[in-house]
Amino acid sequence: MLERRKIGGLEGGQYRPLRESDIKQIHDTVMRILQEIGIQVSAKRGFKLFKEKGAGVSEEKQIVYISPGMFEDLIALAPSEIVLYGREERNNIVLGGKRVYFGSGGTALNILDLETGEKRPSTLADVQNVSRLLDKLENVHFEVIPVYPNDLPPEKVDVNRFFAALQNTTKHVMGGTYTLEGTKNVIRMGEILAGGAETLRREPFISLITCVMSPLKIEKTYGEFLMTVAEAGIPLAIPAEPIAGATSPVTIAGTVANLCCETMAGILLAQLVNPGTPCLFGSVGTGADPRTMGYVSGSVEEGLINAAAAQMAQFYGIPFYATAGQSDAKFVDAQAGWEGAITNLLVAMAGANFIHDAVGLLEFCMTASYEKYVIDNEIIGEVIRVLQGIEVTPETLALEVTRKVGPGENYLSEDHTCDFLRKEHFIPVLADRNDRETWIKLGRKDTFQRAHEIVLQILKTHQPEPLDPNKTQLIRESFDEMVQ
Predict the structure, then answer these.
(1) Are 376 and 358 in contact (CB under 8 A)?
(2) DSSP label of 465
(3) What is the pLDDT of residues 231-290, one digit of tens each?
(4) Buried residues in 224-241 as b, exposed as e (16+ CB within 10 A)
(5) Can you say how many angstroms the Cα of residue 241 is from the centroid of all Cα atoms in its chain?
(6) Is 26 exposed, middle or buried (0-12, 13-18, 19+ CB in 10 A)?
(7) Segments of the chain assigned to CATH 3.20.20.480
(8) What CATH homologous superfamily does 4-17+76-388 map to?
């Protein structure tokens, strides 16, 4: 197993779709869009903050015009490195530079049932079970709460979703919220578990997502969510979701430029509210299907957009929340495999820091699959092996063992082979490498069947470290919305 937690994330950056001159051109375009076209800020408090800082404004259209100088002053306030904590220290992740981590994403409204295999609305029990599964999967480094609890009324969703996740994983938990009151309650719940507001700010084991709307708009509701989280000093992912050809230019370069304007406008607002707020430059950018102009989540263009956006985030010195790994397939089939693998590989090799949606998602991110979480965990293991690269040293060049073995012999019994076998070669848990006769004797199981059995075994046996029972009881007493 790769000792990822000891080295703070493997280094990406081997794949650079943008040249340095391309990055400069995109940045220059971003500056022109922000200054000449502007960002609509429908959240009144946010609009006022930009205006008071000196941004040009159109009161009638609620548009702010941001100068390069203002942009540079505010971006300089945002941290270039963010530590997202787990409930256990070994699950801490350090975001910045080109360090790469993978995790889940959401929020899917449906899930493939473990018993029937059919799609059904996801429930709070699925939030709990998927969180417990993710806690066990070694190549999943964090959890973005993956499914929506359709069995709860809307006013009870936010605190129960976060609590269900926190109960069932010791990895960092991130998620979106759906009401302003729910946003405040999630922060308060985190403060109770941490032992105080200052402790949570210092070692945040939760973080929140507040989206910016494409094209070029900070919407009223999520703008208020953004400012509320910034005031609390909690790490904040601010993704935009431009769809090339629909809500952004059809060209990838144009989409990346728009994306930079949108997410950076959210980061600027967070710095206006609370200078130094830890923010993630966020992308859920993708392309539209050229035949229908409908949304797709498994396109290779999504990989290109997010890889290029990773380079822009590195240029601005802001940790990057990326999207990869999803599929538009309706079942866990070959399409689900290749779409997830290609985008995860592209975006990881570009050095994206926090790759969410990397496991488990199908059907335009509307449906999750327990089995796909396991399959994607193995795919990510191979991507991690790619990021490790090839170590070239006197020991790995193996001149002396080659001299010892000589022509016509083999290396099977050599100590050198034993020493390096597991270090040099990825060892799959899920993939079948038996000969056909052995495969037949073992029941002729395909990848989905093997993944299904792993899911059942994990859910039967794995129990994450529990929350403090006294704090758990206090949370139950503090929020009328709690159902657990």
Answers:
(1) yes
(2) P
(3) 999 999 999 999 999 999 999 999 999 999 999 999 999 999 999 999 999 999 999 999
(4) bbbbbbbebbbbbbbbbb
(5) 14
(6) buried
(7) 4-17+76-388
(8) Trimethylamine methyltransferase-like (3.20.20.480)
